[in-house]
Design brief:
The complex is a heterotrimer of chains A (about 130), B (about 250) and C (about 120).
Chain A lengths: L19 H32 L1 H11 L2 H28 L3 E2 L2 E2 L2 H23 L2
Helix pairs in contact in A: 1-2, 1-3, 3-4
Chain B lengths: L2 E10 L9 E10 L4 H12 L18 E4 L2 E4 L11 E5 L6 E3 L2 E2 L2 H9 L21 H8 L9 H5 L1 H5 L6 H12 L6 H8 L13 H5 L6 H18 L9
Parallel strand pairs in B: 1-5
Antiparallel strand pairs in B: 1-2, 3-4, 3-5, 6-7
Helix pairs in contact in B: 2-6, 6-9
Chain C lengths: L5 H28 L13 H8 L2 H28 L5 H25 L1
Classes of the chains: A mainly alpha (about 130), B alpha+beta (about 250), C mainly alpha (about 120).
């Protein structure tokens, strides 16, 4: 009997369309584009701030245009998606076992959300809210 | 018991006569409690003796009967027909070459398994007269989950990184390495690192997590890999500072 | 096979991802949305106030981290995402991604030093 194994190929570009779990994964990965873009906005802001009061004023005015609001809306949505997916996998990457007892995932994730609420509140307060 | 007719579309391939695989359809009367494996056995017994496939225990412990069922890697002995639609598409496990019909070539997986040194590397050879290794229940609990792998390779079929790069060591092999790295009787983490901490090892993984989704025994290879990434990263920075430290 | 050097970028990715998860959503609201929707007064982003916040070492340090960590996190993830979309020229992609992160780091650091 002769062997002639057959190799199937998978598209390198569109493989992720085949299943919802792959699409969700790509959504999580694409969040980095918005986080990167927001970081670029922060860099530009810092440069304008170091330039002059007028430059900074123009930057702040640009932040309040509709285009900027739409961008920041998307950036916030993707940043939140990044945060929730990050928190959800932390118990997998760093399980906590004390003696015989393994801390339930929900405890670790809940602690992260609590810390996130505290940090967000603190930032908001420092910003003048 | 009521009967239900389902249509199995099975990907066939005969290396001696076929250029490419093609689907063949069988109409099978299924009992209420049947799994897909029962339907496939019916095809072989009653309709087409030429159908080739692997199976053994019929109770999800041997890991032999993995196949793609409507695009999802599953154990055919664990896939209940009552949970599936009337048309069931059955293909050999993805990301492996097809040997014949539903039988895939597993050689690459077998090589990957042995490459991670899946055995206890003890501090020193312990003669039998010295007695057993002692291990507390808490120490066993640390790695018990990763001992449950039945080598069914559903995880390799679900992994898009393995789909595109056959050199990836893969979820099951890395989970097995993690099982030994976590074992209190083992000091082999450094010995395994050449394979595990290589670019083809844990660093090929992008944490899609599909492997853990499809695992029939809750091994959670994705968790094993992420934990190994953290351990390897700490090793990478700490080892140069602490020469002579045992693994 | 040899041990990979990925831990270098991966530790930045992990630190950046953690920082981005905890800090970035609030930062986006505060900087890009809060004034427009009335959650914060316009004075929150006033020039004098911003200078006061960022001219001390803590403010500078935090502002630097706000750029440095998420930039390297995004850069590494973008490299992986390019691969996931079928772009296989990994060396070029890595150079572009980490180059952008380096640029962001240097520009931010330079601006903060001038404040």
């Amino acid at each position: 009997m002769s062997r002639r194994p057959y190799t199937r190929t998978v598209s390198a570009a569109s493989w992720w369309l085949a299943q919802p779990r792959y699409i969700r994964y790509m959504g999580r990965e694409v969040s980095c584009v918005f986080i990167g873009a927001y970081t670029a906005v922060v860099v530009i802001g810092l440069i304008r701030l170091a330039e002059s009061g007028a430059a900074w004023g123009a930057f702040v005015a640009a932040l309040q245009t509709p285009a900027s609001l739409i961008f920041h809306g998307f950036a916030l949505a993707f940043a939140l998606y990044h945060a929730t997916t990050w928190f959800n996998v932390t118990p997998k990457a760093m399980p906590v076992q004390i003696g015989d007892i393994v801390l339930p995932d929900s405890v670790i994730i809940g602690a992260h959300y609590a810390a996130w609420a505290v940090v967000s509140g603190l930032l908001f307060y420092l910003a003048g809210g | 018991m009521t009967e239900r007719h389902v249509q199995l579309e099975i990907l066939r391939y005969d290396p001696e006569t076929d250029e490419v695989p093609s689907f063949q359809t069988y109409r099978v009367p299924c009992q209420e409690d049947w799994v897909v494996l029962d339907a496939i056995n019916y095809v072989k017994d009653e309709m087409d003796r030429s159908l080739s496939y692997r199976w053994s225990c019929h109770m999800a412990v041997c890991g032999s009967c993995g196949m793609m069922i409507n695009g999802e890697p599953m154990l055919s002995c664990k896939a209940f027909v009552r949970d599936l639609p009337d048309k069931i598409r059955i293909e050999p496990l993805a990301n492996f070459p097809i040997e014949r019909d539903l039988v895939v070539v597993m050689d690459d997986f077998m090589d990957k398994l042995s490459s991670v040194k899946p055995y206890l590397v003890a501090r020193r050879d312990k003669p039998v007269d010295d007695g057993e290794h002692l291990q507390l229940p808490a120490q066993l609990k640390k790695f018990k989950q990763y001992t449950l792998c039945i080598n069914c390779t559903l995880c390799y079929s679900a992994c898009p990184q393995y789909a595109h790069d056959e050199t990836f060591v893969g979820p099951a092999a890395l989970a097995l390495a993690h099982r030994y790295n976590l074992d209190s009787r083992d000091v082999g983490r450094a010995a395994r690192a050449d394979v595990v901490a290589s670019n083809d090892g844990i660093w090929e993984c992008s944490f899609v997590g599909a492997c853990s989704d499809v695992c029939p025994h809750g091994v959670d290879p994705a968790a094993a890999i992420q934990q190994t990434k953290i351990a390897s990263t700490l090793d990478y920075f700490i080892e140069p500072l602490t020469p002579g430290r045992k693994g | 096979m040899a041990r990979s050097h990925k831990p270098i970028v991966w530790s930045l990715f992990a630190a950046g991802g953690t920082f981005a998860a905890f800090v970035t959503p609030a930062m986006i609201v505060v900087s890009g949305l809060a004034i427009s929707i009335g959650l914060l007064p316009a004075e929150a982003l006033a020039y004098d106030r911003m200078l006061a916040l960022l001219q001390n070492p803590f403010g500078k340090g935090f502002a630097f981290l706000t750029v440095f960590l998420p930039a390297w996190h995004a850069a590494h993830r973008l490299r992986i995402t390019a691969h996931d979309f079928g772009i296989r020229a990994d060396l070029i992609v890595a150079a572009v991604c980490y180059g952008l992160a380096t640029g962001a780091t240097l520009l931010a650091g330079g601006a903060l030093l001038r404040l």
